[in-house]
Automatic annotation (TrEMBL), chains A, B:
GO molecular function: FMN binding; oxidoreductase activity
Cofactor: FAD
Family to which this protein belongs: Belongs to the FAD-dependent oxidoreductase 2 family. FRD/SDH subfamily.
Keywords, comma-separated and alphabetical: FAD, Flavoprotein, Oxidoreductase, Signal
Ranges of residues in domain FAD-dependent oxidoreductase 2 FAD-binding: 48-482
Name of protein: Flavocytochrome c
Signal peptide as annotated in the record: 1-34
Length: 501, 501
């Protein structure tokens, strides 16, 4: 059947409502005898697989489904493809990669799993976390490198909360997204922007059979766009990301974040999550919202200075609080530990590295941070101290102490792993850091096949989910670079599952 | 109209489904033209107010509604009335009571509010917490004491996490429940046990209009009992308690509790919460599950020894860990701090007080704990140490140190408030403590009127909620004795609101 014919095709079906059916609380049948609502849904288009959201999880799912010969559409509500995936740091935690082996770094899926459980306060759904850890290198190798041609820098980076250096980087999430879009299009996947899903459609057995969309949707105008009904022969994949940009829903779960800024794009809202909950998905860990500790208050959103603060200052330098001019944390602690420490201090922290530490990091965003002045360069520590209102004598004492610890390799003050680089050689670099809302750990419940689980604990047939849209993989606190790992592994998993349905 | 006539009355109404209507994900209407499902619901009974759950929140709501001349029914799924409210310690936090004033204790709603926010990690919905704090003494005075005749011991107790002594006690939750049931019955409230709600019924505008029940329900048999439809003219109050006894749902939110025991009765399950979520209620803080730190592993459920451990050992004595025979916490920290400390130690803690500390506490459950041997009496510290495998020399050193701190009134080791009583005079008493699942902080979202809030942030008309069923009042960690305060204040609030509807 041609696409055109499919579009003209009406799926005539009576929707029988069993006694179990409820409409947002409306009882449709009040006795053991099922009432029947007969109605024709006019399906405007038919696909095997409908993917909602064009970030890393969605495009991974779309690609994996297309490999299985499924016809696939990806709907993106925004004008641009990729969501937060396109503006992130492009860092992916990979356990047991060839890059690690080349550098003699001993790592394993089990060690990554233990790191994720520790950061996650053991709230993680262990089978989901394990599934991600077991597949980071196999899927990054097979899909990112071999099939999509994603280019990594070749570095293996040590990121906060991880036991060993294991993070591979493209320096920008857009490099993943662009490669994925090309690969998807080659496989015939349709990627359609400005298309908002406003209903998930189920049949009489609560199996998901399609979606109602609004084409040419204008973000924030819920009634805008042309309504169409899209049939999903095999299933629907929810990969709409998190809700970090949705102040109402973030504040509901974490009222202290009322005035917090965030690192995301404006489309990181809660409508699809809410629609999924209305469709009977089970909410998991919604009250865990992560703040990224190293974003700069001197630029908008995620910005650029974080690249310096996370890669140079936290690894080869230090963070001080401006009121005491002293170190106050393990700069390689997990994100929550670091964000909590900065918030508790009451001030943005000052991230500092010298020219040697600075020179160890090559990152495309660092020149942009120097350009917008969120990252600054100083010829002397006196100038640096003056800029951030630090006590230069105290600061020099702290640096002397830091250098002593760096030379022994053992940070007895804050128990951090030391790279051995001291803070000594001018010029010096510094940036301010203050937490911004960055990731929502919670979402809908899934199983290891990427199938959505309903409130009663049963699989919702025809419904799949992956990425930040889901809850359980990261528990209470997500480790850095584990979001992309999650999106790739569960995106591919969901894509394989839905196309095999 | 007589009840009999009401029962014979059929409410004939067409249920029109707007485009917004969805059945557990089923789209019933696919265009801007509303489809209409016409159906007769045969209402078996009519009440103004239907209250679900007969614990403190439910009975408070029922009483307040009955005062407003509403006809009220309370449905309880179990054979016995009261749920966990009937088996708890009967302790209620009251800020600014006459009892405190008599004893010269300076307290205020604001101070309780700050204590609750501190324990709750500021995750509390502040307006809800404030509403509870502002009404503890007014409502305890007007309702518990004056209208229901609840008898308090007259003591004002210092409970962990509270800044000052403020807890009033009946020594058993059943004293509240019995008094409430009597008062409710005098006002014509029908209290019906073994009646399970299996559907919340809404009309075409998603207003809640009634419930489907199963009478003569047998707990755990979801298909048991006779189905009836109950019309709620003014509204339905959800006060079904928490889900501490529901291993599937607890583990989903907090996987570490897979093997944890719990303090509750077996009816503390999740069906009503799940039904409320299906009806479009907004989930808040579901991942915060509290463990009670001082329950005894040597008895079932909540037991009795906690009365000694919380009132005598934590206030006038100390807790030691058996592997070191040393103190290891502020024994008046909040529940999470204490539970975490015991779990981290890997062993049940040993709670110890001498005869002076023991004699300061009069509690009806203490003789029961001695009877079942979860609490034991020793003539010498040597005997006590032998029983719990402690190093008696180390223990004596710890006691000497403790007595030194007690005499100065300042616990520089663990920053606890000291009562001044030392551990010196035989006989000595001791009990083992290990955390058990005790309270679920999360639940459905409400506003300060006790109205249920839907996923989209709007009030669900006709639906109210109170008590452990709701989320937000306690944030991440509930303080001791604040559950009864919450149940009374929000129960009465919801009862006033629904009956005024």
């Amino acid at each position: 059947m041609s696409n055109l014919q499919q579009r003209r095709d009406f799926l005539k079906r009576g929707i029988a409502l069993s006694t179990a059916s409820i409409t947002g609380g409306t009882l449709l049948s009040s006795s053991a005898t099922a009432a029947t609502v007969t109605e024709d849904i006019k399906w405007d288009e038919h696909y095997d697989v409908v993917v909602i959201g064009s970030g890393l999880a969605g495009l991974s799912a779309a690609y994996a489904a297309s490999e299985n010969k499924a016809s696939v559409v990806v709907f993106e509500k925004m004008k641009t493809i990729g969501g937060n995936s396109a503006i992130n740091a492009g860092s992916v935690a990979v356990a047991g990669s060839d890059y690690q082996k080349e550098k003699g770094i001993k790592d394993s899926p089990e060690l990554l799993y233990q790191d994720m459980l520790k950061a996650g306060r053991n709230l993680n759904h262990p089978e989901l976390t394990k599934h991600v850890c077991d597949h980071t290198w196999p899927y990054v190798k097979e899909y990112c490198i071999d099939k999509w041609g994603v280019e990594f820098t070749g570095q293996v980076i040590h990121v906060g909360g991880h036991s060993v250096p294991r993070v591979m980087s493209t320096q920008s999430g857009s490099k993943f997204i662009n490669a994925q879009v090309d690969a998807c299009k080659k496989n015939g996947v349709v990627v359609q922007t400005r298309t908002m899903i406003d209903k998930i459609i189920s049949d009489e057995n609560n199996n998901v059979i399609g979606v109602r969309v609004r084409e040419k949707y204008r973000f924030g105008k819920s009634e805008s766009g042309k309504v169409k009904h899209i049939r999903a022969n095999k299933g629907v994949v929810l990969s709409g990301g998190g809700f970090t940009g949705d102040q109402r829903y973030v504040t509901l779960q974490e009222p202290t974040l009322q005035d917090a800024r965030n690192t995301g794009q404006k489309g990181a809202t809660s409508e699809l999550l809410i629609e999924a909950l209305k469709a009977g998905c089970n909410p998991v860990h919604l009250s865990w919202v992560q703040q990224y500790p190293l974003s700069s208050p001197d630029e908008k959103g995620f910005g650029f200075a974080y690249a310096f603060s996370s890669r140079a200052a936290c690894v080869h330098g230090m963070l001080v609080r401006p009121d005491t001019s002293k170190r106050f944390m393990n700069e390689l602690g997990n994100r929550k530990q670091r964000a909590d420490a900065i918030i508790a201090s009451g001030h943005p922290a000052i991230a500092i590295a010298d020219s040697v530490g600075f020179g160890k990091v090559s990152h495309s965003k660092i020149p942009m941070a120097l350009e917008n002045k969120s990252l600054k360069k100083f010829d002397t520590l006196e100038e640096l101290a003056k800029e951030y209102d630090l006590d230069v004598a105290v600061l020099k004492g702290e640096i002397a102490r830091y250098n002593e610890l760096a030379s022994t390799g053992k940070d007895v003050d804050f128990n951090r792993k030391m790279s051995g680089v001291s803070i000594a050689k001018a010029p010096f670099y510094a940036a301010r850091c203050y937490p911004k809302v960055h990731h929502t750990m919670g979402g809908v419940q899934i199983n290891v096949h990427g199938e959505a689980i309903g409130l009663d604990g049963e699989v919702i047939k025809g419904l799949y989910a992956a990425g930040e849209m889901t809850g359980g993989v990261h528990g209470a606190v997500r480790l850095g670079a584990c979001a992309i790992a999650d999106c790739i592994v569960f995106g591919i998993t969901a894509g394989k599952s839905v196309s095999a349905a």
